[in-house]
Amino acid sequence: MALIVHKYGGTSMGSTERIKNVAARVAKWHDAGHRIVVVPSAMSGETNRLIGLAKEIMSQPDPRELDMIASTGEQVSVGLLAMALLARGKDAVSYTGWQVGIKTDSAFTKARIQSIDDSRVRADLDAGKIVIITGFQGVDDEGNISTLGRGGSDTSAVAIAAALKADECLIYTDVDGVYTTDPRVVSEARRLSKITFEEMLELASLGSKVLQTRSVEFAGNYRVPTRVLSSLTDPLMSLEEEANSGTLISFEEESNMEQAVISGIAFHRDEAKITVLGVPDKPGVAFHILGPISEANIEVDMIIQNQSVDGKTDFTFTVSRNDYQRAMGVLEGVKEEIGASKILGDAKVSKVSAVGVGMRSHVGVASKMFRTLSEEGINIMMISTSEIKISVLIDEKYM
Ligand code: ASP
Ligand code: MG
User: Between the CA atoms of 159, 162, 163 and 169, what dihedral angle is there, to the nearest 10 degrees?
Assistant: First the structure.
């Protein structure tokens, strides 16, 4: 008998029919003697609809009020799922984030979980109940409702699993696991049965949208065994088969010789590149260029500074395409001050990254990647690397 947290995404909760399927699956696990906590997302499209309503009233919605509205999608989901279980004769109870003490900071629309009070949930589990908790939301110190950012239910589920010291967190979604790359782009992509937490962290932050990045950080920090698996299979399939399906995020690097050097290839289409030309090469250049960008809350990804010629240098960095216009505006504002001769931008670039812990022990991975791109006549604009990743920036037409 184990304590298991199930998380179901919006597609899995997309209609009352699907919610009944989720109930059937959850009931199967409970019948097998496990203690089950379920964390569902809002029904698919619901969070977008709620945000859309807010924007009809206020084009830049007030963040606190936006969270008040956006958090309601999950409240509907938990109630419906609890009813679907009750209708099957199962004892189930649903809670919102504040009812089970999911405390966050006050960064509305992107709040971070600070603590979870597990006492109420434990008491219910001890009484044999299935406990259903809203994903995506919590409450700050002043009692304001907060949300964790888009896709935040993944993080709720893993954080709840960590707080309860669950044996496993099962993330049920509309794909059957983590793939070597996006199968919609590359038909030869295959599912990985296992991936290390570090690789998953890189893939998630590099644009694979299977899990919210922060949920992977939580899984890593609290060592929560987490599995990504399909919710679209027959809910009554054998429990044994289901428990071994999907992709397990593991914490051990296998010393297995046959382990692939590269586990996955991630990509980000929506990048933009900005080059600041002819700035004086002296201490503080990077700070004076990137300081105002960071003050504007714009995240910078890849950075290069060129060799200086006659005391002047060029400085290039990338931002997400959403932030491109704003970043250009910020730089135009400080252009004089930083002594730049020109600011150039290119919003039609994409980033491709190869990820694998095997890179630590294998040389030549980068050169193989560069050769492959060269053979296709693809120019590399920027390169960045870490111990287990190589990223290149290319023209979006080659994505
Ligand atoms: N419902 C929220 C969203 O659409 C949270 C989630 O689904 O994870 O972003
Ligand atoms: Mg999601």
Answer: 80
